[in-house]
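Hi, here's the filled form for the chain we discussed.

Project: internal
Contact: R.S.
Residues: 400
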Amino acid sequence: METKYYLGIDIGKRNHAIALTDKDGKLLMKTGNFAATSEGWQKFVSHLEKLIDHTEYPSVLAGMEATGHYWLTYYLKLKELGMQVSVLNPLEVKAFRNEGIRGNKTDAIDAEKLAKLLRFGEFKETYVPEGDLIALRQLTRLRGDFEVMLTGMKQKILAVLDQTFPEYRTVFKKVWSATSLAILTQAHTPEAITLLSTRELVAIARKASRGRIKEGEIAKLQTMAKETIGVKVGGDMFSLALDILLSQIEHLQGKIDLLEKKIADLSKNLEPYLVSIPGIGPITNAITLAEIGNFNRFIGLDGAEKLVAFAGIDPKLKTSGQFVGKTKMSKRGSPYLRCAIRQSAFVAVFTAKDPMFSKIYEKQINRGKHFEVALSHVERKMLHVIYSLLKNKTEYVPKI
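And the returned structure, exactly as it came back:
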């Protein structure tokens, strides 16, 4: 149906400003009084019905900026009404808002400018996944956020150990192993470790390690606990800190495990091609496909580079006059996809030792490039491989 109306929505945390214009640019509705609640929604619909008949909703093009997570509710509700809905690129919206000399800015003015931008038709949309991909993206992103929180908790624990028992990691190089965590849970400080008998500590360690721990390692741990140069004052405070942090780690890990089970359920019908790439497992596959969404939007002559840019791994160069700055990653794309690809590239090179990806990494290192720069070349290549596999619906075969 021909577009007759343009609905610009300036999304806010508590209230939304909305402007409606016709195809000639005449302003039909301008307000910022619609609360982000069911009552506010009903008020908006009631107001809208006084201006246009509901049978004309398919001729309405609505647009909003992808502001945090607040836009999703109105996006789905407007789609239910049968409207055409576009989520606009924030950078493009910012540039359009700044037009004009006076630079006046209010929510109502921003809504009008969004409606104007829609009417001009020169805008880029932010992709919004549909159906199960919305749920999958929500879960994979939540899992990613929890992983970041978990890493923060672990860093805090290492900081406590470095102060109270710096020798601990000479016995347990893998602090997060089941055995190490079992001992730390039972004895938070060196003093607590020395108070337990060797038999008690061995029993704790063997239960956690399924019998793989050696008694000599436990004896070494006790000796170091007695001789540690760690901080002795404030033992109760450090013990409390470790107790809280360890319980938080256990809680977060449990939630991550729960999320991964749900992600696995939602991923059963996903295309399996990417798991053939060394470094990409079922969870990384789910994250990658959830972030990419509809792959068809990338297909084209420069499709692989579009995917690289979407991950924010494309180069960004700043120049002015004769000044030429350093080329860096743009980091403007999906941070979740970028993180997943970085982890996959790391595993492909250092764990799986894939011949093609390892060769790319070594080539850059031999050129004197920094570790991160060398790995970024692997990330770019991996995204090109991902593009090829999804486009051709085939599995990965390394090229040496």
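Let me know if anything looks off before we file it.
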